[in-house]
């Protein structure tokens, strides 16, 4: 998994910045949420790595929703337990993102 994500990151750096990354107004929403969290392990390098994975795994709107989980853990629980098909699809994607970030950024 790590070699695949590394290849994707390398390929993205070869693309124009307007294609590879979110506009600056919406960029780094996961990184900012991570840095403002109360987790002891947070640091700029780790949060930046997690943001890179988010850029390839999640849409902008999914990143905005996921960023809310850092300050509102109950929202994550409510989303996970929801019967809504939309929230269920998001949760599966969020869980996959978390596993990828954990593997890649550790």
Oligomeric grouping of the chains = single chain
Let me know the average pLDDT: 81
Distance between the termini: 13 Å
Shape, please? globular
Helix/strand-derived class? Answer: mainly alpha
The radius of gyration computed from the alpha-carbon positions, rounded to a whole number of angstroms, is 14 Å
Percent range for helical residues?
A: over 70%
Largest sheet: none
Count of DSSP-assigned helices? 7
The amount of beta strand, in percent, is under 5%
Poorly predicted regions: 3-25
What string gives the helices and strands in order? HHHHHHH
What is the tally of beta strands?
0
Please provide a brief summary of the model.
By secondary structure, this protein is mostly helical. It is 76% helix and 0% strand.
Give a verbal description of the structure.
The chain is built from seven helices and no strands. The protein is mainly α.
Index terms:
single chain; 106 residues; mainly alpha; 7 helices; 0% strand; disordered N terminus
List the helices and strands and how they pair.
Blueprint: H1 2-14, H2 17-20, H3 29-36, H4 44-57, H5 60-71, H6 73-81, H7 85-105
Helix pairs in contact: 3-4, 3-5, 4-7, 5-6
């Amino acid at each position: 998994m790590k070699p695949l994500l590394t290849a994707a990151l390398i390929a993205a750096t070869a693309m124009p910045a307007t294609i590879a990354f979110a506009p600056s107004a919406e960029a780094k929403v996961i990184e900012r949420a991570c840095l403002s969290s109360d987790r002891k392990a947070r640091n700029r390098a780790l949060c930046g790595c997690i943001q890179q994975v988010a850029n390839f795994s999640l849409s902008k709107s999914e990143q905005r929703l996921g960023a809310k989980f850092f300050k509102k853990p109950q929202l994550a629980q409510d989303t996970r337990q929801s019967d809504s098909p939309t929230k269920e699809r998001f949760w599966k994607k969020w869980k996959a993102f978390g596993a990828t970030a954990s593997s890649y950024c550790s």
